[in-house]
Amino acid sequence: MVSSVWRFAHLTLAILSFTFLIIASVTGVILAVDAVNEKIPAYKNASFNELSLAQTLPNLREVYPEILELSVDHNQFVSIEGFDEEGNDFKFIADPVSGKKKADLIVKSEFIQWVTALHRSLFLHETGRFIVGIVSFLLMLITVSGIALVLKHQQGFKKFFGKINREFFAQYFHIATGRLLLLPILIIALTGTFLFLIRFDVIQKEEFVSNEIQNSEAKELPLKDFPVFKEIYLKDVVKIEFPFADDPEEFFKIKLKDKELLVNQLTGQIVSETKYPITAVLETLSLDLHTGRTNSVWAILLAITSLNILFFIYSGFVITFKRKAVKISNKFKSHEAEYIILVGSEKGSTLHFADKLLKQLLANGKKAYVTNLNNYTVFKNAQQFIIFTSTYGSGEAPANANKFEKLFAKIQQPNKVTFSVVGFGSTQYKDFCVFAYNVHKLFVDTSWANPLLNVYTVNDKSANEFVLWVNDWSKASGISLSNTPAVYQQKKPKLKSFKVIEKTAVSSNNSTFQITLKPNNRTTFQSGDLLAIYPLKDQTERLYSVAKIKNNIHLVVKLHENGLGSQFLYNLSLNDTLQAVVIKNESFHFPKKASKVIMIANGTGIAPFLGLIKENKSKIPVYLYAGFRNQNDTTNAYKIFLEEEIKQKKLTDFHFAFSRENQSEYVMNSIEHNADLFAEILENNGIIMICGSLNMQKDVEQVLNRICLEKNNMSLDFYKENNQIKTDCY
């Protein structure tokens, strides 16, 4: 709950102030660079820090008898003002020892003056200064809330600078740069806020109090022998006002960084001392720190920090939009659903897996419903609960699950149900998936829930690890789900452009068509990868297995009357352009190390195998078993293609089974007829690859399991665990 408050505060403050922060950051970078540029000219005396007033003022007064004022700016350039021997006034940057002119006074360019006005007041005068001050205060609150979130994310101060679990670019660098630039950001915010409070008298300025100093009579001394001048160095001086030389009632008025002195021009005695109040000292310090005007290194750091604030704004909103990117659309209402998917997620990433599961359950004709754990209630028709949850901080519930445990204690389900819990997290943290185990125990301790499986855990959103749960859940529930890891991957590449260069037509006895796409840009892919298309130009996605032939993408698609993806592809014409994404499916690439390979497909599942066979440059023995409904022009074209590959020794043999021909046969029958070959290949570390429908996969695996038990005294699970069974089914 606390983390949710901090996150809400962090986001709300950012939304309220981001426009003004962009202006302040951009102008801040420009002004910081200008502060560095000001120090580039060599107007500062090489021995400036060691020069006392006793070493400089006598020379200057000798060269310029009518000198009126000496000033030291934030660049430590010394400027003098007065009248020359001819009565003409002068004002320039001078060498503090010789008095020689070094340059005219530096005047800010019109552009820098314009940027300064925008930075300080937005061209709105006092109203603008007030707004900028409020934004500085908001930046301070954003920084504080950010610190709280990082502490929570990293599990305390000890791990504040520890390794960050990288989910995506914006998230990682938002935290990483935030930690590194924490102090500069906080200083910018604090000093800006303090200057605002001082200017608008929220913090009252204290009055200056002068102390008159009673001195005994003393003899006149030359300036170089004044004790006070020997003790004061130029580096501590802000301004010195010179007295008229012939008026003993006139004094040197010396303004230092923390006080002001009046010094008798004849005896060198201090007549009066005025110490600046702490508010005045802090105001000057705040201005120096906020602008970087006194130190080039600090100014450069301020410029980097200002640039990074712009990145914070960008990355912060990317994180927010990613969290809200997955939107669940439930087809059934909660009281109608039989399969209830409860999600606990801090950043929304776990919802992605729930969405993939929901769509497949609906496709299987199941009444399924997804909601957050905080929305737990009575589900009167529930048969099974599936819980996907992350863990936050030190074993705590994520943001949308922080009320679940209290709700669960009050609400019982009316029917007996089964349940399965999958925990998501990172093994980098010691409390990996603790909340998932807590949820599992809550269900176990009830009288109405029985576990379908033990707790499964997924590290760093690994699709491969998630598929382990998918396989076991499918087996336990009897519901087929896609076990292709690429289907569940969250990181999708950017859309790329493809040109239609070839397409076949469907016929009365053949509803399958082939389409060939040429990448318009450089695209790396292999046979077995997936092509994702977006027919509605939204998040609605359709995936197709890819065959790589002559560096083009070759798809085999069955045209469905109301099929969203198949109709979209079929309606494309030659030379049309398609926007799509190639998704790496490394688990279904051609095996690099295998004694022999058997490929099993039905229908359009043959597509990736056409390319994989082409890629068999090592000429490993490969056998293809494929099942179709009818023999037609398409299957005849496959035969011609495959016979050529046999000649090239990239394919050893192939078998086609036709279920609706006179001699009806299914691919499972072909496998049974060649049981010895399958058993021998698995026994000798060969690989079996299966692509097609989930129902076909289920039937094929039953046949293979019988063969393995009869011939090898091993179950098919043994070979699955040995990574000898690869599947891409849907």
UniProtKB/TrEMBL annotation:
EC top class, as a word: oxidoreductase
Transmembrane segments: 12-33, 130-151, 172-198, 297-321
EC number(s) per entry: 1.6.2.4
Assigned keywords, A-Z: Flavoprotein, Membrane, Transmembrane, Transmembrane helix
Entry's Gene Ontology cellular component terms: cytosol
Domain FAD-binding FR-type: 493-591
Domain Flavodoxin-like, first and last residues per copy: 339-478
Pfam families: FAD_binding_6 (PF00970), Flavodoxin_1 (PF00258), NAD_binding_1 (PF00175), PepSY_TM (PF03929)
Coiled coil: none
MF (Gene Ontology): flavin adenine dinucleotide binding; FMN binding; NADPH-hemoprotein reductase activity
Name assigned to this protein: NADPH--hemoprotein reductase
Organism: Paenimyroides viscosum
